[in-house]
Every structure is written in structure tokens, then in C-alpha cells.
Amino acid sequence: MANNKRPENMERIVTPALAEQFIQEQVNEIKAQVGDKKVLLALSGGVDSSVVAALLIRAIGQQLVCVHVNHGLLRKGEPEQVVEVFRNQMKANLVYVDAVDRFLDKLQGISDPEQKRKVIGAEFIRVFEEEARKQEDIHFLAQGTIYPDILESGGVKAHHNVGGLPEDLQFELVEPLRLLFKDEVRVVGDALGLPAGMVYRQPFPGPGLGVRCLGAITRDRLEAVRESDAILREEFAKNGLEGKVWQYFTLIPDFKSVGVRNNKRSDEWPVIIRAVNTQDAMTATVEDVPFALLQHITKRITSEVKGVNRVCYDLTPKPTGTIEWE
Ligand code: XMP
Does any ligand 1 atom lie closer than 6 A to the CB of residue 153? Predict the structure, then answer.
């Protein structure tokens, strides 16, 4: 039975000075647990799964099988980064699954936010299960469970809306980060040589851009969310706001407004920008983004993103607004 309690009187398990020692201990533990068997990991490219992947690659190399499911709801450049970092640089055994059409077909016409989350979660499990069945000799499932997941939901990663794998696919778990807090996970990721953009990225919801393309998802509007989000991130990075603002993103509601383009009336979508700061995501304040920067981002989005004629900035703290819009 794995130890699921942090040692008492231990404020920090991992600091930059202790990172190598932690990594070595985990490498030894993983080797002892796994032996010469294979381990499966769902690698989303988020902080936790990326750090688990890097740790397992260090410990068992090709015995790790990473599965990256591209469900079409990731931010611009994310699937490519997973392939570049893990397959090309770290030489990991990575299965890349292009499931974009599957997910978008399943989501067609579904407008209720909780239903969207359920469909995304259930389809994810289905795709992952199919990939798991294609692999031979898998005995273990690695997971990026971290200490807050154990405290908050009994070991299930927060916000997972559906159950796990079916009975006949029950693997023994490998959870090397289970006693760490998020900042400690980042320290380990740094020490393992993962890119800073991966280790220090802002929080991103499991259902991804799916809950930022409000109402029933359409491919054109989803693309506009992805492109506008990429512009916002690029401009925040250029202007020193990356790493300073806790979470920032764009979203698009499911209605159009009238505008003017090339001297003609145009019916296009508005893009809404949200940028917030918080300690624990229970309450949040709005970032005071310089007005000139907002104007510049507006100009870029309305000229570069197809189908968008307006940009709004959400001034609402939490409460009364939540961070996401749905
Ligand atoms: P809200 O919108 O509730 O968001 O103020 C608080 C934090 O949780 C994230 N969030 C989610 N994360 N699955 C996730 O993994 C979800 O369904 C989900 N909904 C919200 C949100 O991005 C913010 O960081």
C-alpha cells in the first residue's frame, strides 16, 4: 500500500537543493515497483503528467508508453510541443492519437456546459482505453496525482467527471508525485530539464477550449478561440505579464454582433478577454492590464482572427463571476 501522507514536520519535500535527491529516490522506487514491465501514461502536456513522464523516462526509458490524445480542444501549439519535447528530445515511446474529429463530432449540437464536460471526459476514457488495449504487456498505469488531489478528492484528479478504466483494464498505479504540492512538482520538472513554458504554464481546464467556445461548439468558432488565445498569450509574454498573471485566456460566446468591415456591414463574433489573479481559485481579482496593451491586442485580434469584429475585457471579479464562463 503506497504511503499517501506527507511526513509530519516536513514543510518542503522538494526544494531546488533537494530536487536531485527526490528524483533519485523516485527513480529507485519506480524501478523496484515496475521491474521489467511496461507502464502506460496519459500525457496531456499539462504540468503534472509532463513531470511524471520525464521522471519515468529517466527511470525506465522505453518501458514507458505515453499516450497523447489530441481532442482538438488544446491551445495552439500544445500537441506539437508534446511531440517535440517527449518524442524528439527525450526519445520517449509516445503514441500520438489524432482524435479531433471524434471529439468534435461527439460534441456537435451539445450546448449544456456540464453535458459538454461529460462528453469530453467519457470520450477521453474511451480513446485512452482503445489505445491501452492495443498495447501488450502493460501492467502499470502512471498518473500525475499530486497531494491536493489526495486531500480534496481521495486521490482522484480534481475535475475528472467520469469514472476510470473498465474492470478488465485495472492496472497497478504508479504515482510518484502523490506527496507533492504544485510548486514542488514544478521544481522537479525544472530539475528534469523540461522547458519552462511547460513547467510554469498557467492552469488550463481539463475540457480545454471546449468550455471557452460557449454553447454548442463549432469548428470555425473553436479555431477563432484558439487563434485569439494565442495572440493574447503572445502579447502577455512580450509585455512581461506571463508568469505574473495567474490565468488569462479568451472565449467566444455563441452569438454575433453587427460591425463594419471594408465599408460593409459584417455579422461577426465578439472575443472576450479574461485575466485574473487568485491564491486558490475560490475568489479572484481582475488584472489591471494597461489600456494601450488591450487596444493593441484588440487591433490584432480583429484583424488577424477570422470571423471576429469586437473585443471585450471582462472586469468581473470572482464572485460574482467565476473564472471560466461556463
Ligand atoms: P471557476 O470557473 O470555477 O474556475 O472559477 C476555477 C478554476 O478551475 C478551472 N476549471 C476547470 N478545470 N476542469 C478543470 O480541470 C473543469 O471542468 C474546470 N472548470 C473550471 C478554471 O480554469 C480555474 O482555474
Answer: no
